[in-house]
């Protein structure tokens, strides 16, 4: 078990290494002069030169690479070329809204989608099943920002139930904080709910065909217990896998959702950095988001052994 | 029901040359395929015949007609600059469809080439797949944003920036097909009689990848249409003077409280376009992949 964890941890190193190399090459291999593009049309030759020096592009490429890897190893993501503030500090300042949104979205999505999928599998072929499947196809296709504006239009503008936009830190009161997270959570979680519900339905359906389910049924196990203890428990591995893989969708969605609802999180930081052509921030955010994705999937891989005793490493 | 079903297994219809049989089987299995096809047909007509559909010049400014609601003259109303919203939404279909089709074709072509090599050339396999794993760990939208920020926004860079993050998934798919097929007896036999590697790949392995790639291609097209709209919406995509659904929505953001229609009309078109392509993909998948059909 510990050997497996160690092996799995080691396997993340090449993946993160490739991420670092891709991000490094992105800047160096882009067509034209990236310093000139980042300086913008209004940029003077001095601006271009300043950006080139700030990004270290004036040095030979192998030196640049050594410096880059050295910085990363020390946890240094560089400094913003606009504000000169270290990227790590800018990111940590914007972490709270994104973390809050991510947690509420994942919790809400799992709590809604798993029962939905189980229900659809249990009532396989009935209207319940068809409704869940239709929801999952439509939910997977409606773009996050379209959905966000539909919620704003319906729940905030027409019914006036919730504030339209903005963010209040949890330290300033739980209700104002929660109130402003409801719409963003509803927006971001729909695609995730659709994805997990579909997989849950499929895996529970598959397990339901197994002999031990029929045996349990025959010996009189109650439906609810059969469904949860026997079917869902054995269908857990694919469900948990898709929860991990779906995080990639969430990361893209966070950028959009935060823009729609004006949340001052990492997604907004990304958009602001793009509009200001502040490349070190974009680069830092890619590294952070990718690490989160890789680490989360590592945790999930390890969690398999707990979920399914048949899996031994 | 049984009389309406095709006479053989759905998978058996998947032989080349029986496209009509294939389409019929898809429609019978998934009536929603009709919905997808109709929506796509409407969008294609919109894109091709945009100038002839009661539209005006999408960039024509009419300052006197700013922010008007829907009327006889302006079916969807006008925007802040007095441009006709209906016209702009119709023209927006062009960019979305172009991006969807080109990204799908490009990522499939590149992914297929890399996947065939990875699946067949053992010593390259490890290197290629580790690289693809790393590329997949980077959120696609962020990678696209970074590429566009570095090389300037244009239709070509946007297409390229959306294509690259999609390639690893195609490579994985092709490689997995190749790894199964290369163990098949007929492939082993071909190698045993001395068929050269390129010929083995093209004659024996390639045909097996076609069905899954068509399905994958539709999903790639759907996600590309979405990605283009997201990038434009965030201000990191197609230059704002070109009417795309994402750009129209981006401009409508500040006026959302007074004129939600500026966002809702293109948004609903976008949602329908993506839904149509996804539904078509589901129909194709269940028709082309007999393993999934069996489970149904």
Description of the molecule:
- The complex is a heterodimer of chains A (313) and B (296).
- Chain A has helices spanning 2-29, 34-39, 45-54, 61-73, 87-93, 95-122, 127-141, 144-158, 174-208, 211-218, 223-234, 236-245, 247-261, 266-275, 279-307.
- By secondary structure, chain A is mainly alpha-helical.
- Chain A folds into 2 domains: 2-73, no CATH class; 93-312, MetI-like fold, CATH 1.10.3720.10.
- With 296 residues, chain B is mainly α.
- Chain B has a single domain (31-58, 70-295), classed as MetI-like fold (Orthogonal Bundle), CATH 1.10.3720.
- Chain B has helices at residues 19-29, 32-48, 85-120, 122-137, 140-151, 155-181, 185-192, 197-234, 245-252, 261-288, 290-295.
- The longest helix of chain B has 38 residues, at 197-234.
- The model of chain B is unreliable at 1-16 and 292-296 (pLDDT under 50).
- Classes of the chains: A mainly alpha (313), B mainly alpha (296).
- At the A-B interface, α1, α2, α7, α8 and α13 of A face α4, α5, α8 and α10 of B.
Order of helices and strands of chain A: HHHHHHHHHHHHHHH
CATH architecture of the largest domain in chain A: Orthogonal Bundle
Tertiary shape of chain A = globular
- The CATH superfamily title of chain B: MetI-like
Write the layout of secondary structure elements.
The complex is a heterodimer of chains A (313) and B (296).
Chain A: H1 2-29, H2 34-39, H3 45-54, H4 61-73, H5 87-93, H6 95-122, H7 127-141, H8 144-158, H9 174-208, H10 211-218, H11 223-234, H12 236-245, H13 247-261, H14 266-275, H15 279-307
Chain B: H1 19-29, H2 32-48, H3 85-120, H4 122-137, H5 140-151, H6 155-181, H7 185-192, H8 197-234, H9 245-252, H10 261-288, H11 290-295
Short description:
Chain A is an all-alpha fold.
């Amino acid at each position: 078990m510990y050997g497996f964890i160690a092996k799995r941890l080691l396997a993340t190193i090449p993946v993160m290494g490739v991420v670092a190399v891709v991000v490094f090459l992105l800047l160096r291999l882009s067509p034209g002069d990236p310093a000139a593009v980042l300086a913008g049309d209004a940029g003077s030759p001095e601006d271009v030169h300043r950006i080139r020096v700030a990004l270290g592009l004036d040095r030979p490429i192998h030196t640049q690479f050594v410096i880059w890897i050295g910085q990363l190893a020390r946890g240094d993501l560089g400094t913003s070329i606009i504000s000169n503030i270290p990227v790590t500090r800018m990111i940590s300042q914007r972490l709270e809204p994104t973390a809050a949104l991510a947690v509420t979205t994942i919790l809400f999505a799992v709590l809604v989608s798993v029962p939905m999928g189980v229900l659809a599998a249990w009532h396989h072929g009935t209207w319940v099943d068809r409704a869940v499947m239709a929801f999952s196809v439509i939910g997977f296709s409606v773009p996050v920002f379209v959905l966000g504006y539909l919620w704003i239009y319906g729940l905030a503008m027409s019914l006036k139930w919730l504030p339209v936009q903005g963010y209040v830190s949890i330290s300033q009161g739980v209700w104002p904080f929660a109130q402003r997270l409801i719409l963003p959570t509803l927006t971001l979680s729909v695609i995730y709910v659709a994805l997990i519900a579909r997989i849950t339905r499929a895996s529970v359906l598959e397990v339901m065909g197994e002999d031990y389910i029929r045996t349990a049924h025959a010996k009189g196990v109650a439906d609810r217990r059969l469904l949860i203890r026997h079917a869902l428990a054995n269908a857990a591995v694919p469900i948990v896998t898709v929860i991990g893989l779906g995080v990639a969708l969430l990361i893209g969605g966070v950028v959009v959702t935060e823009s729609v609802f004006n949340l001052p999180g990492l997604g907004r930081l990304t958009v602001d950095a793009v509009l200001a052509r502040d490349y070190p921030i974009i680069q830092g955010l890619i590294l952070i988001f990718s690490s989160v994705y890789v680490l989360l999937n590592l945790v999930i891989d390890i969690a398999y052994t707990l979920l399914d005793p048949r899996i031994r490493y | 029901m049984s009389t309406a079903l095709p006479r053989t297994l759905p998978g058996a219809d998947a032989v080349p040359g029986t496209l009509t049989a294939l389409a019929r089987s898809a429609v019978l299995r998934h009536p929603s395929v009709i919905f997808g096809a109709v929506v796509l047909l409407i969008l294609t007509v919109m894109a091709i015949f945009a100038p002839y559909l009661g539209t005006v010049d999408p960039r024509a400014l009419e300052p006197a007609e700013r922010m008007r609601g829907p009327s006889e003259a302006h079916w969807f109303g006008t925007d802040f600059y007095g441009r006709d919203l209906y016209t702009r939404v119709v023209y927006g279909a062009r960019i979305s469809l172009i991006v969807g089709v080109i990204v799908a074709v490009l990522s499939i072509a590149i992914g297929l080439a890399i996947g065939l090599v990875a699946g067949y050339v053992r010593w390259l396999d490890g290197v290629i797949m580790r690289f693809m794993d790393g590329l997949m760990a980077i959120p696609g939208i962020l990678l696209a944003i970074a590429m566009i920020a570095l090389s300037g926004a244009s239709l070509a860079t946007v297409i390229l920036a959306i294509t690259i993050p999609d390639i690893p998934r195609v490579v994985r798919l092709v490689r997995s097909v190749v790894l199964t097929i290369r163990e098949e007896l007929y492939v082993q036999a071909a190698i045993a009689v001395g068929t050269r590697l390129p010929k083995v790949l093209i004659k024996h392995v390639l045909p097996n990848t076609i069905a899954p790639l068509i399905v994958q291609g539709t999903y790639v097209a759907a996600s590309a249409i979405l990605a283009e709209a997201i990038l434009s919406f965030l201000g990191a995509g197609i230059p704002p003077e070109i009417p795309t659904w994402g750009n129209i929505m981006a401009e409508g953001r500040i006026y959302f409280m007074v004129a939600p229609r500026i966002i809702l009309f293109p948004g609903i078109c976008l949602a329908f376009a993506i839904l149509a392509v996804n539904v078509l993909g589901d129909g194709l998948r269940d028709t082309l992949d007999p393993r999934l059909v069996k489970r149904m």
